[in-house]
Amino acid sequence: MATPGDRRSGEQGDAGGCRAAFIVEIRNSGVAQMTWLNFVTLNGVAPIKDLHLVSDAGAGEGLMQYHPTRDTELIVCGRANTRLNGAYLPSPVLGNGSVTPAILVHGILRALQKRGFKIRLHCYQLGLDNLPDFSGCKLDDVVIHQCELGKEKALIETQLIPELKRQAESGERHLIAESGIGGTTFAIVWLKCWLGKEIMFSGSTKDPEKLTRKEQVIKQLLVMSETLPVEVSHFSGDLELSDPVQRATCALLDAELKELILAGGTMMFAPVIAMEREISTEALKIATTRWIFDSPDATYAASKLPEQCSVLTPNVNFNHSRFAALNKYEQGYVVEGCGLGASLVFAEEQGMSGEEIIDSLDDAVSAWLSK
Protein backbone atom coordinates (compact mmCIF):
# COMPACT_ATOMS: atom_id res chain seq x y z
CA MET A 1 0.00 0.00 0.00
CA ALA A 2 2.01 2.93 -1.27
CA THR A 3 1.84 6.47 0.04
CA PRO A 4 3.54 9.66 -1.11
CA GLY A 5 7.21 9.35 -0.31
CA ASP A 6 7.33 5.57 -0.81
CA ARG A 7 10.45 4.06 -2.32
CA ARG A 8 10.50 0.77 -4.15
CA SER A 9 13.70 -0.69 -5.50
CA GLY A 10 14.30 -3.84 -7.50
CA GLU A 11 17.41 -5.95 -7.93
CA GLN A 12 20.35 -4.63 -5.92
CA GLY A 13 23.05 -6.63 -7.63
CA ASP A 14 25.02 -9.58 -6.36
CA ALA A 15 25.61 -9.77 -2.61
CA GLY A 16 28.48 -12.14 -2.11
CA GLY A 17 27.13 -14.48 -4.77
CA CYS A 18 23.52 -14.38 -3.60
CA ARG A 19 20.63 -12.72 -5.36
CA ALA A 20 20.19 -10.79 -2.12
CA ALA A 21 18.48 -8.35 -2.94
CA PHE A 22 15.11 -7.94 -4.20
CA ILE A 23 14.12 -5.20 -1.77
CA VAL A 24 10.76 -3.54 -1.39
CA GLU A 25 10.30 -0.69 1.04
CA ILE A 26 7.05 0.92 2.10
CA ARG A 27 7.69 4.14 3.97
CA ASN A 28 5.13 6.56 5.37
CA SER A 29 6.36 10.14 5.09
CA GLY A 30 5.72 13.16 7.30
CA VAL A 31 5.92 11.28 10.60
CA ALA A 32 7.52 12.79 13.69
CA GLN A 33 10.65 11.10 15.03
CA MET A 34 9.70 8.24 17.35
CA THR A 35 11.25 5.09 18.74
CA TRP A 36 11.55 2.36 16.12
CA LEU A 37 11.11 -1.33 16.80
CA ASN A 38 12.64 -3.40 14.02
CA PHE A 39 10.91 -6.77 13.80
CA VAL A 40 13.00 -9.14 11.70
CA THR A 41 11.59 -12.45 10.50
CA LEU A 42 13.80 -15.18 9.03
CA ASN A 43 11.55 -17.24 6.77
CA GLY A 44 12.46 -20.65 5.43
CA VAL A 45 11.46 -24.25 4.88
CA ALA A 46 13.57 -27.21 6.02
CA PRO A 47 14.81 -29.65 3.35
CA ILE A 48 12.59 -32.56 4.35
CA LYS A 49 10.97 -34.74 1.71
CA ASP A 50 7.18 -34.88 2.09
CA LEU A 51 7.33 -32.22 4.80
CA HIS A 52 3.55 -32.10 4.93
CA LEU A 53 3.65 -35.61 6.43
CA VAL A 54 5.93 -34.40 9.25
CA SER A 55 4.54 -30.98 10.17
CA ASP A 56 1.06 -29.64 10.89
CA ALA A 57 2.20 -26.17 9.85
CA GLY A 58 1.49 -25.17 6.28
CA ALA A 59 -1.35 -25.94 3.92
CA GLY A 60 -0.36 -29.40 2.74
CA GLU A 61 1.47 -31.04 -0.12
CA GLY A 62 3.07 -28.62 -2.54
CA LEU A 63 2.07 -25.59 -0.47
CA MET A 64 4.43 -25.71 2.52
CA GLN A 65 6.75 -22.98 1.24
CA TYR A 66 3.89 -20.47 1.35
CA HIS A 67 3.36 -20.81 5.09
CA PRO A 68 6.16 -18.45 6.24
CA THR A 69 5.10 -15.93 3.59
CA ARG A 70 1.47 -15.99 4.69
CA ASP A 71 2.44 -15.74 8.36
CA THR A 72 4.47 -12.64 7.57
CA GLU A 73 1.48 -11.15 5.76
CA LEU A 74 -0.61 -11.81 8.87
CA ILE A 75 1.96 -10.00 11.03
CA VAL A 76 1.99 -6.99 8.69
CA CYS A 77 -1.60 -6.82 7.45
CA GLY A 78 -3.68 -8.83 9.90
CA ARG A 79 -4.64 -11.20 7.11
CA ALA A 80 -2.94 -13.61 4.70
CA ASN A 81 -2.98 -12.30 1.13
CA THR A 82 -1.08 -14.95 -0.83
CA ARG A 83 -3.50 -17.35 -2.48
CA LEU A 84 -3.26 -21.11 -2.16
CA ASN A 85 -4.05 -22.94 -5.39
CA GLY A 86 -5.95 -19.83 -6.46
CA ALA A 87 -8.05 -19.67 -3.31
CA TYR A 88 -8.11 -16.56 -1.13
CA LEU A 89 -7.80 -17.85 2.44
CA PRO A 90 -6.98 -14.86 4.69
CA SER A 91 -7.91 -16.43 8.04
CA PRO A 92 -5.32 -17.14 10.79
CA VAL A 93 -7.40 -19.98 12.25
CA LEU A 94 -5.58 -23.33 12.42
CA GLY A 95 -6.97 -26.81 11.91
CA ASN A 96 -6.69 -27.54 15.64
CA GLY A 97 -9.03 -24.67 16.47
CA SER A 98 -6.33 -22.30 17.61
CA VAL A 99 -4.76 -19.43 15.64
CA THR A 100 -1.29 -18.93 14.20
CA PRO A 101 1.04 -16.91 16.44
CA ALA A 102 1.45 -14.49 13.53
CA ILE A 103 -1.93 -12.85 14.11
CA LEU A 104 -1.10 -12.44 17.81
CA VAL A 105 2.20 -10.76 16.96
CA HIS A 106 0.19 -8.44 14.71
CA GLY A 107 -2.01 -7.54 17.67
CA ILE A 108 0.97 -6.78 19.90
CA LEU A 109 2.71 -4.65 17.26
CA ARG A 110 -0.48 -2.66 16.72
CA ALA A 111 -0.74 -2.07 20.48
CA LEU A 112 2.88 -0.88 20.55
CA GLN A 113 2.09 1.57 17.75
CA LYS A 114 -0.60 3.08 19.95
CA ARG A 115 2.07 3.53 22.62
CA GLY A 116 4.22 5.59 20.27
CA PHE A 117 6.44 2.97 18.63
CA LYS A 118 7.04 2.96 14.91
CA ILE A 119 7.23 -0.60 13.61
CA ARG A 120 9.49 -1.64 10.76
CA LEU A 121 9.31 -5.27 9.61
CA HIS A 122 12.29 -6.82 7.82
CA CYS A 123 11.25 -9.94 5.91
CA TYR A 124 14.05 -12.34 4.90
CA GLN A 125 12.86 -14.90 2.36
CA LEU A 126 15.57 -17.55 2.70
CA GLY A 127 15.50 -19.90 -0.26
CA LEU A 128 11.82 -19.19 -0.88
CA ASP A 129 10.78 -18.45 -4.46
CA ASN A 130 7.75 -16.34 -3.50
CA LEU A 131 7.38 -12.85 -2.07
CA PRO A 132 4.73 -11.67 0.39
CA ASP A 133 1.86 -9.44 -0.67
CA PHE A 134 1.62 -6.60 1.85
CA SER A 135 -1.58 -5.07 0.50
CA GLY A 136 -3.35 -3.48 3.45
CA CYS A 137 -0.10 -2.94 5.37
CA LYS A 138 -0.77 -1.77 8.94
CA LEU A 139 2.85 -1.25 9.99
CA ASP A 140 5.01 1.81 9.38
CA ASP A 141 7.74 0.35 7.21
CA VAL A 142 8.32 -2.97 5.45
CA VAL A 143 11.52 -4.24 3.83
CA ILE A 144 11.82 -7.51 1.90
CA HIS A 145 15.07 -9.36 1.22
CA GLN A 146 15.34 -12.61 -0.71
CA CYS A 147 18.17 -15.03 -1.44
CA GLU A 148 18.68 -18.38 -3.08
CA LEU A 149 18.94 -21.51 -0.96
CA GLY A 150 22.43 -21.82 0.54
CA LYS A 151 23.18 -18.09 0.17
CA GLU A 152 21.80 -17.13 3.58
CA LYS A 153 25.19 -16.26 5.10
CA ALA A 154 26.00 -13.80 2.34
CA LEU A 155 22.60 -12.13 2.63
CA ILE A 156 22.87 -11.76 6.41
CA GLU A 157 26.40 -10.39 6.20
CA THR A 158 25.65 -7.85 3.50
CA GLN A 159 22.17 -6.75 4.58
CA LEU A 160 21.08 -7.61 8.11
CA ILE A 161 24.32 -7.18 10.06
CA PRO A 162 25.01 -3.65 8.72
CA GLU A 163 21.36 -2.80 9.37
CA LEU A 164 21.56 -4.02 12.99
CA LYS A 165 24.64 -1.85 13.50
CA ARG A 166 22.80 1.14 12.06
CA GLN A 167 19.87 0.49 14.39
CA ALA A 168 22.17 0.32 17.42
CA GLU A 169 23.82 3.61 16.48
CA SER A 170 20.39 5.23 16.04
CA GLY A 171 18.99 3.97 19.34
CA GLU A 172 16.47 1.71 17.64
CA ARG A 173 15.30 -1.63 19.04
CA HIS A 174 15.16 -5.04 17.36
CA LEU A 175 13.72 -8.54 17.68
CA ILE A 176 14.88 -11.34 15.35
CA ALA A 177 12.17 -13.94 14.87
CA GLU A 178 11.75 -16.97 12.65
CA SER A 179 8.95 -18.44 10.63
CA GLY A 180 10.19 -21.80 9.51
CA ILE A 181 8.62 -25.16 8.79
CA GLY A 182 10.47 -28.32 9.75
CA GLY A 183 13.07 -26.39 11.73
CA THR A 184 12.38 -28.25 14.95
CA THR A 185 13.53 -31.45 13.25
CA PHE A 186 16.92 -29.96 12.44
CA ALA A 187 17.15 -28.35 15.88
CA ILE A 188 16.75 -31.82 17.40
CA VAL A 189 19.49 -33.25 15.16
CA TRP A 190 21.92 -30.50 16.09
CA LEU A 191 21.15 -30.73 19.80
CA LYS A 192 21.51 -34.52 19.79
CA CYS A 193 24.93 -34.13 18.17
CA TRP A 194 26.17 -31.33 20.41
CA LEU A 195 24.66 -32.46 23.71
CA GLY A 196 25.01 -36.22 23.22
CA LYS A 197 21.57 -36.79 24.71
CA GLU A 198 18.29 -38.23 23.51
CA ILE A 199 16.08 -35.19 22.89
CA MET A 200 12.70 -34.82 21.23
CA PHE A 201 10.35 -31.88 20.73
CA SER A 202 6.96 -32.30 19.10
CA GLY A 203 7.14 -28.98 17.24
CA SER A 204 3.92 -28.14 15.41
CA THR A 205 2.24 -31.53 15.65
CA LYS A 206 0.84 -34.00 18.16
CA ASP A 207 -0.20 -36.42 15.43
CA PRO A 208 1.28 -39.87 16.26
CA GLU A 209 1.88 -40.77 12.60
CA LYS A 210 3.66 -37.49 11.90
CA LEU A 211 5.75 -37.83 15.06
CA THR A 212 6.78 -41.34 13.99
CA ARG A 213 7.77 -40.07 10.56
CA LYS A 214 9.66 -37.20 12.19
CA GLU A 215 11.66 -39.67 14.28
CA GLN A 216 12.53 -41.57 11.09
CA VAL A 217 13.77 -38.37 9.42
CA ILE A 218 15.86 -37.54 12.49
CA LYS A 219 17.45 -41.02 12.45
CA GLN A 220 18.32 -40.62 8.77
CA LEU A 221 19.94 -37.24 9.40
CA LEU A 222 21.91 -38.59 12.36
CA VAL A 223 23.24 -41.43 10.19
CA MET A 224 24.32 -38.86 7.58
CA SER A 225 26.16 -36.83 10.22
CA GLU A 226 27.70 -39.60 12.34
CA THR A 227 31.13 -39.46 10.65
CA LEU A 228 31.37 -35.66 10.76
CA PRO A 229 33.27 -33.71 13.42
CA VAL A 230 30.83 -31.90 15.72
CA GLU A 231 31.72 -28.50 14.31
CA VAL A 232 29.28 -25.90 13.07
CA SER A 233 30.90 -25.44 9.67
CA HIS A 234 30.38 -29.10 8.77
CA PHE A 235 26.66 -28.83 9.49
CA SER A 236 25.86 -25.30 8.33
CA GLY A 237 27.87 -25.90 5.17
CA ASP A 238 25.74 -28.91 4.24
CA LEU A 239 22.30 -28.06 2.86
CA GLU A 240 21.03 -31.50 3.88
CA LEU A 241 22.15 -31.17 7.52
CA SER A 242 20.92 -27.65 8.21
CA ASP A 243 17.97 -25.47 7.41
CA PRO A 244 17.93 -21.86 6.13
CA VAL A 245 17.04 -20.34 9.51
CA GLN A 246 19.91 -22.16 11.23
CA ARG A 247 22.40 -20.95 8.63
CA ALA A 248 21.16 -17.37 8.91
CA THR A 249 21.26 -17.47 12.71
CA CYS A 250 24.82 -18.81 12.71
CA ALA A 251 25.88 -15.90 10.50
CA LEU A 252 24.32 -13.47 12.97
CA LEU A 253 26.03 -15.07 15.96
CA ASP A 254 29.38 -14.74 14.23
CA ALA A 255 28.97 -10.97 13.86
CA GLU A 256 30.51 -8.41 16.21
CA LEU A 257 27.34 -6.84 17.58
CA LYS A 258 26.75 -5.12 20.91
CA GLU A 259 23.39 -6.83 21.39
CA LEU A 260 21.44 -9.56 19.66
CA ILE A 261 17.90 -10.49 20.66
CA LEU A 262 16.70 -13.76 19.17
CA ALA A 263 12.97 -14.40 19.24
CA GLY A 264 12.25 -18.10 19.34
CA GLY A 265 12.60 -21.35 21.23
CA THR A 266 14.44 -24.55 20.40
CA MET A 267 15.08 -23.44 16.82
CA MET A 268 17.22 -20.67 18.32
CA PHE A 269 18.71 -22.82 21.10
CA ALA A 270 20.37 -25.19 18.61
CA PRO A 271 22.55 -22.72 16.67
CA VAL A 272 23.44 -20.82 19.86
CA ILE A 273 24.65 -24.00 21.56
CA ALA A 274 26.48 -25.12 18.42
CA MET A 275 28.14 -21.71 18.03
CA GLU A 276 29.08 -21.32 21.72
CA ARG A 277 32.84 -20.88 21.13
CA GLU A 278 32.35 -18.70 18.07
CA ILE A 279 29.75 -16.20 19.29
CA SER A 280 31.01 -12.66 18.78
CA THR A 281 27.98 -10.77 20.15
CA GLU A 282 28.60 -8.95 23.44
CA ALA A 283 25.08 -9.35 24.86
CA LEU A 284 22.99 -12.26 23.62
CA LYS A 285 19.36 -12.79 24.62
CA ILE A 286 16.77 -15.36 23.62
CA ALA A 287 13.17 -14.38 24.29
CA THR A 288 10.57 -17.11 23.99
CA THR A 289 7.32 -18.36 25.49
CA ARG A 290 7.13 -20.11 28.86
CA TRP A 291 5.29 -23.00 27.15
CA ILE A 292 8.59 -24.07 25.61
CA PHE A 293 9.69 -25.15 29.07
CA ASP A 294 6.77 -27.52 29.54
CA SER A 295 9.14 -29.88 27.71
CA PRO A 296 11.84 -31.35 29.99
CA ASP A 297 14.10 -31.71 26.95
CA ALA A 298 13.72 -28.02 26.10
CA THR A 299 14.50 -27.13 29.70
CA TYR A 300 17.62 -29.29 29.56
CA ALA A 301 18.71 -27.70 26.27
CA ALA A 302 18.23 -24.24 27.76
CA SER A 303 20.47 -25.20 30.68
CA LYS A 304 23.28 -25.82 28.17
CA LEU A 305 23.10 -22.38 26.59
CA PRO A 306 26.33 -20.35 26.89
CA GLU A 307 26.83 -18.25 30.01
CA GLN A 308 26.67 -15.02 28.01
CA CYS A 309 23.17 -15.94 26.79
CA SER A 310 20.15 -14.97 28.90
CA VAL A 311 16.65 -16.37 28.37
CA LEU A 312 13.55 -14.22 28.81
CA THR A 313 9.93 -15.37 29.02
CA PRO A 314 6.66 -13.43 29.46
CA ASN A 315 4.21 -13.73 32.36
CA VAL A 316 0.90 -13.13 30.58
CA ASN A 317 -1.66 -15.96 30.82
CA PHE A 318 -3.73 -16.76 27.74
CA ASN A 319 -6.47 -18.34 29.85
CA HIS A 320 -7.59 -14.76 30.47
CA SER A 321 -8.58 -14.41 26.82
CA ARG A 322 -12.28 -14.64 26.04
CA PHE A 323 -11.48 -16.88 23.06
CA ALA A 324 -10.98 -20.65 23.30
CA ALA A 325 -8.49 -20.42 20.40
CA LEU A 326 -6.11 -18.47 22.64
CA ASN A 327 -6.80 -20.64 25.68
CA LYS A 328 -5.46 -23.55 23.61
CA TYR A 329 -1.97 -22.05 23.87
CA GLU A 330 -2.05 -22.80 27.59
CA GLN A 331 -3.01 -26.39 26.71
CA GLY A 332 0.03 -26.92 24.48
CA TYR A 333 -1.66 -26.81 21.08
CA VAL A 334 0.73 -24.03 20.00
CA VAL A 335 4.07 -23.51 21.74
CA GLU A 336 5.94 -20.75 19.90
CA GLY A 337 6.40 -19.21 16.49
CA CYS A 338 6.82 -15.94 14.60
CA GLY A 339 8.56 -14.31 17.57
CA LEU A 340 5.46 -14.46 19.77
CA GLY A 341 7.32 -14.95 23.06
CA ALA A 342 9.71 -12.08 22.38
CA SER A 343 6.85 -9.81 21.33
CA LEU A 344 5.09 -10.53 24.62
CA VAL A 345 8.30 -9.94 26.59
CA PHE A 346 8.86 -6.64 24.79
CA ALA A 347 5.29 -5.52 25.48
CA GLU A 348 5.68 -6.29 29.18
CA GLU A 349 8.98 -4.41 29.25
CA GLN A 350 7.15 -1.35 27.91
CA GLY A 351 4.78 -1.50 30.88
CA MET A 352 1.81 -3.19 29.24
CA SER A 353 -0.24 -5.12 31.76
CA GLY A 354 -1.46 -8.66 31.23
CA GLU A 355 -4.97 -7.31 30.69
CA GLU A 356 -3.78 -4.83 28.06
CA ILE A 357 -1.85 -7.52 26.24
CA ILE A 358 -4.77 -9.94 26.22
CA ASP A 359 -7.06 -7.18 24.97
CA SER A 360 -4.67 -6.51 22.07
CA LEU A 361 -4.60 -10.21 21.19
CA ASP A 362 -8.37 -10.54 21.43
CA ASP A 363 -8.78 -7.50 19.21
CA ALA A 364 -6.51 -9.07 16.59
CA VAL A 365 -8.49 -12.32 16.39
CA SER A 366 -12.03 -11.15 17.13
CA ALA A 367 -12.96 -10.70 13.47
CA TRP A 368 -11.97 -14.30 12.75
CA LEU A 369 -13.46 -16.09 15.75
CA SER A 370 -16.77 -16.63 17.52
CA LYS A 371 -16.64 -16.59 21.32
Essential attributes:
371 residues, disordered N terminus, 12 helices, nine-stranded mixed beta sheet
| Mean pLDDT rating | 87
Detail the poorly predicted runs. 1-33
Strand content: 15-25%
Q: Count the DSSP helices.
A: 12
Taking Cα atoms only, what radius of gyration do you get, to the nearest Å?
19 Å
| Number of extended strands | 9
Decide which structural class fits the backbone.
alpha/beta
State the helical fraction: 25-40%
Major sheet: 9 strands, mixed
Provide structural commentary:
- Strands 1-2-5-4-3-6-7-8-9 form a 9-stranded mixed beta sheet, with helices on both faces.
- It has helices at residues 66-77, 101-114, 152-170, 183-195, 208-225, 232-236, 244-253, 266-274, 296-303, 324-330, 340-349, 354-365; strands at residues 8-11, 22-27, 35-45, 117-126, 141-147, 173-181, 259-263, 283-287, 309-312.
- The protein is α/β, with parallel strands linked by helices.
- 37% of the residues lie in helices and 16% in strands.
- The protein has 12 helices and 9 strands.
- Strand 7 (259-263), helix 8 (266-274) and strand 8 form a beta-alpha-beta unit.
